[in-house]
Design a protein that fits this description.
Layout (H helix, E strand, L loop, with lengths): L14 H18 L10 H24 L4 H30 L7 H9 L3 H8 L16 H24 L3 H22 L7 H5 L1 H17 L11 H24 L5 H23 L5 H4 L3 H8 L1 H17 L8 H29 L5 H10 L5 H22 L7 H25 L19 H9 L2 E5 L1 H5 L1 H7 L4 E4 L9 H9 L6 E5 L8 H11 L3 E5 L9 H14 L3 E4 L1 H5 L15 H17 L7
Parallel strand pairs: 1-2, 1-3, 3-4, 4-5
Helix pairs in contact: 1-2, 1-13, 1-14, 2-6, 2-9, 2-11, 3-4, 3-6, 3-14, 3-15, 3-17, 4-5, 5-6, 6-9, 7-9, 7-11, 9-11, 10-11, 14-15, 19-26, 21-26
Protein name: Acyltransferase
GO cellular component, one term: plasma membrane
Subcellular location: Cell membrane
Length: 622
């Protein structure tokens, strides 16, 4: 008779809930306060490390006891743990989108299917979506990428584990194989990463992120929890506690300072971080150390047990809530507090009514349960809950039926087409200048005077200006080049300051870096003083005009504008063009995103910028 009893089944490592709490809070606060907890995204490799260790530890216990792994039972346990809450989140979110935010129905089929198949990370890669384009209309399902990576591991690893145990047998050799795969994943991240570009491919890829899970798996062979003894020498206890405290300290410091765009992160930094995460897991698992007790308390227990639901609902809550707030910069902390309460409240309902019941539910009795439910009085609690669930499910189904594919609303279409046309124009003009050809485009607009007096128009004709910017300045580039025919524009959608030093160097190499520089950056995210200094150092002593930002839907608007005001005091060659205060009271100048100027707004934008530039002193000509 097969013995299926698990070893040390009764030892639940409560400190792991503490680690999960630290991880999930890091991720949430990274999204709520991106300029404060710049490294909170590293909560994900902490989750990966815990999962790798726990799953492999359980598989090893089963193998040692029975010399086999019940793969069917393993997959059923994982599905019962993961799918009910995921499906509930997808259904609830789709129903909400159908009623309140129908613009997000576009392409929702691919998002739902890829999420259910746990292929969302690869789907997002092939769609060309960016985890780091903070301005783009966000999907409430963006975060499913990490669950997909874990689920792919859950699918493949038990089979690989059994093969290793059967044919390799020796733990030392197995550890070497896992370590080799871990280093291969680290190497792939470094090889696929290109500095100063969007790192989404290496951030999402299973191949480039697997090392965090595999490192946890390797430690399950090195440091199996069921072989660790509570009674150890005092010196060993102190040593373990020291390792755990140092690891926890490095994790917290990384959350605070290791920003996602640092090259170091992808050239081994995330791997080094994962080593400390695994060390924290290992020390917490040891009954002879004090970390497990230190990481165990009612708050950590509550959050840790609900961490899956908290992670699931963070993005839907943030996306749906923030879409209804026109200006997040007003009472920003209050908005963040409300979002946090909503996430915790919904995750509690998920834990109580979805995760716990379905984890214990025997699906073979589904028909009997359904029959019993139908026979109950109409106003019994579970019958009411089931009725609400059916209604929400039908609403979500309706949303999927009417959902368009690859369609955007009229304003988005107009903005997208305007940006694409302008981008081609500025690239063509740049190409003509490089090749020494004359530019056939209009020198100064005949149909519009842009509010400029003849003296200003004449001055603008001869001004040589280099522009570095994002989609806002690209959107208005046609109007700017009508006013300034010698203006050279290098702008791109989603561009951020930290990736813009190479743009300066490229313009210098092309001999198109003029004496007057116009900058339009900050729409897509904030920046540090060090990043600003690097950028200004690359520019040198040239005269710099910097257009501040109007991004009321994003938390970093005030941070960016405050930083620019501070930097103006430091750099004498820097002038701030205060587009924010000039335009802030004029919603009619903008598309529905409240950021990109519409047809009227583009003229206002170009005129306002032009008047500052032609004056040469940072103020409009009277």
């Amino acid at each position: 008779m097969k013995n299926t009893k698990r070893l040390v089944k009764d030892r639940y490592i409560t400190g792991f809930d503490g680690i999960r709490t630290i991880a999930v809070l890091g991720v949430i606060l990274y999204h709520l306060f991106p300029t404060v907890l710049v490294g909170g995204y590293l909560g994900v490799p902490v989750f990966f490390a815990v999962s790798g260790y726990l799953i492999t530890n359980l598989l090893r216990q089963e193998w040692i006891q029975t010399k086999e792994v019940d793969l069917k039972a393993f997959y059923i346990r994982r599905m019962k743990r993961l799918y009910p809450a995921l499906i509930a989140m997808l259904v609830l979110s789709t129903a909400y989108i159908t009623i309140f935010q129908s613009n997000l129905l576009n392409n929702i089929h691919g998002e739902i299917i890829s999420s259910l198949l746990y292929l969302n990370n690869w789907w997002q890669i092939f769609q060309g979506t960016s985890y780091f384009d903070h301005f783009a209309v966000p999907s409430p399902f963006t975060h499913i990428w990490s669950l997909a990576v874990e689920a792919q591991y859950y699918l493949v690893w038990p089979i690989v584990f059994v093969l290793l145990e059967k044919f390799i047998k020796y733990p030392g050799k197995i550890i070497k194989i896992i370590s080799s795969l871990t280093l291969l994943s680290v190497l792939l991240m470094a090889l696929f990463y290109t500095p100063n570009t969007d790192p989404t491919r290496v951030y999402y890829g299973t191949d480039t992120r697997l090392f965090s899970i595999l490192l946890g798996s390797a430690f399950a062979f090195i440091w199996p929890s069921y072989r660790l003894k509570k009674e150890i020498p005092q010196s060993a206890r102190h040593f373990l506690n020291g390792v755990g405290i140092i690891s926890l300290f490095i994790i917290i410091m990384s959350f605070l300072f290791l920003a996602d765009h640092y090259n170091f992160v992808y050239y081994g930094g995330m791997f080094i971080f994962t080593i400390f995460a695994v060390l924290l897991v290992a020390v917490t698992a040891h009954p002879g150390a004090d970390l497990n007790r230190w990481l165990t308390n009612p708050v950590f227990d509550w959050i840790g047990k609900r961490s899956y639901g908290i992670y699931l609902y963070q993005f839907p809550v943030m996306v749906f809530y923030e879409a209804k707030i026109k200006n997040l910069t007003h009472f920003s902390l209050w908005h963040s507090f409300i979002e946090l309460l909503l996430i915790l409240g919904i995750s509690e309902l998920s834990y109580r009514y979805i995760e716990k019941p379905f984890k214990k539910f025997h699906y073979k009795y589904s028909l009997l349960v359904l029959k019993d439910l139908v026979s109950k009085p109409l106003f019994k609690r579970w019958k009411i809950i089931s009725g609400i669930g059916i209604f929400v499910g039908l609403l979500a189904l309706y949303g999927l039926i009417i959902a368009p594919s690859n369609q955007i609303d009229a304003q988005q279409q107009e903005l997208q087409e305007q940006i694409e046309v302008n981008k081609k124009k500025v690239e063509d003009r740049k190409s003509h200048i490089i090749q020494g050809k004359s530019d056939s485009s209009p020198q100064v607009a005949k149909e519009l005077d842009y509010g400029l007096i003849p003296e200003e128009k004449e001055r603008a004709k001869n001004m040589e200006i280099s522009v570095i910017g994002d989609s806002v300045i690209l959107n208005a580039s046609a109007d700017l080049q009508k006013i300034f025919p010698k203006m050279v524009i290098d702008s791109d959608v989603g561009r951020q300051l930290y990736a813009s030093v190479p743009v300066v160097e490229k313009l210098k190499k092309e001999k198109m870096f003029k004496d007057t520089i116009l900058i339009g950056l900050g729409t897509n995210g904030s920046f540090t003083e060090a990043q600003f200094n690097d950028f200004m150092h690359a520019i040198g002593e040239k005269k710099v005009y910097w257009i501040n930002v109007r991004v009321p839907t994003k938390r970093w608007q005030d941070d960016v504008n405050s930083m620019l005001e501070e930097m103006k005091k430091k750099y004498k060659n820097l002038t701030i063009i205060d587009w924010y205060n000039y335009s802030n009271a004029h919603e009619e100048w903008f598309y529905d995103d409240h950021v990109h100027p519409n047809e009227i707004g583009r003229i206002k934008y170009a005129t306002f910028v032009a008047k500052h530039l032609v004056d040469g002193k940072g103020r409009p000509v009277k």
